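We modelled the chain as a single entity of 69 amino acids. Its sequence is:
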Amino acid sequence: MIFSDVVETIKNLSFEEKQELHILLAQYIREERRNEIYQNYLDSKKEVEQGNVEFSSDINRLKELLEEE
């Protein structure tokens, strides 16, 4: 099924079905975003554990670190 078919099918749903689909999509999007945030956390944690992250409260050093990327 292609995207335009999905859109056309949705257009033909009742109002109540569209509302239910909206709720489901919002939940799916939240879950995907939550998983993405968690994966970013795991990746960051791994970088810290491997010593690939440098922390500094010196503004000049922070600027240098940003310019290195």
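As a brief sanity check on the tokenised model: The chain has one domain: 3-68. The chain has a mean pLDDT of 93.
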